[in-house]
Amino acid sequence: xxxxxxxxxxxxxxxxxxxxxxxxxxxxxxxxxxxxxxxxxxxxxxxxxxxxxxxxxxxxxxxxxxxxxxxxxxxxxxxxxxxxxxxxxxxxxxxxxxxxxxxxxxxxxxxxxxxxxxxxxxxxxxxxxxxxxxxxxxxxxxxxxxxxxxxxxxxxxxxxxxxxxxxxxxxxxxxxxxxxxxxxxxxxxxxxxxxxxxxxxxxxxxxxxxxxxxxxxxxxxxxxxxxxxxxxxxxxxxxxxxxxxxxxxxxxxxxxxxxxxxxxxxxxxxxxxxxxxxxxxxxxxxxxxxxxxxxxxxxxxxxxxxxxxxxxxxxxxxxxxxxxxxxxxxxxxxxxxxxxxxxxxxxxxxxxxxxxxxxxxxxxxxxxxxxxxxxxxxxxxxxxxxxxxxxxxxxxxxxxxx
Length: 402
Known about the structure:
globular
């Protein structure tokens, strides 16, 4: 039976699809014996000294609102951290804004920049919220496809070909969720040249920057002429294992940060003060923790990529983030059917590639933020599942005579 109240829902919201990740893992939650390679969340508990900072802040009675931009001490810590690890300088007073995760930072950046009908370029497969966030800001999302042949790096020529009159914003995400794709300095320079030629504002989501395994991570904001047209988006969730703290931040030109702050102050007020206290500790004293966890992810990456290729699931080695993106299309199943059958038959959860856009068809995302032993068990179960698929392909088919 249809709900008559649906007629009250805004058209641009009613047309949005539900998250392909969350719907799938609502099922996984009901299977306690399943091994999840799905949700992009570190299996590490937030380091103790960071948790202790939040506990101490609570014991000190720090339970009130903060400045809309966030605690000045946190903005100073962000400024120092970004200068040290990204070689970028931003003033704590007016060029940094703390947010409730990077998701909010992206949302309010788009709402602060987009006029109805403005177009936004982004590369896919991509994080599930990019296209919907553009739609919710009354913009028009313009995807730029990437391919496994190029390890899902953004091709500047493909970006130029996708451009249309009315494009105002370019969303970048390096390293990329779900593919682990990156952009080296040379490629970024070509992208930056294009952005300047077309007068684009760049929203650079670099939440996985610290989890770069091969080569150096370069932010496009560091390239000549890009600081004044780039909003650098980052946060604590991935590298510091602080997903539940929901603490992100944006750095950029004062005028753009001010515009974002206006949206932020009316929809969110401020990020939670206890999370801000924890973030100060993490940024000041958490780098050794980051390096320790990154080394574990690196080991897991090497294992799971090697194992997938041995099993006949072609998979490039992601240079960043903590996702493998193997090809599964050779079995004649859609990525969704492959994922459903793998879950039902062997109780291993992966995310269908189509959750990240049409370019993900024929692939699945497997997160190696899960423990090493569980990854080994999951790969063993996947091997059994693939044996079943191959046996079915080789089985003689019955011929029904008329």
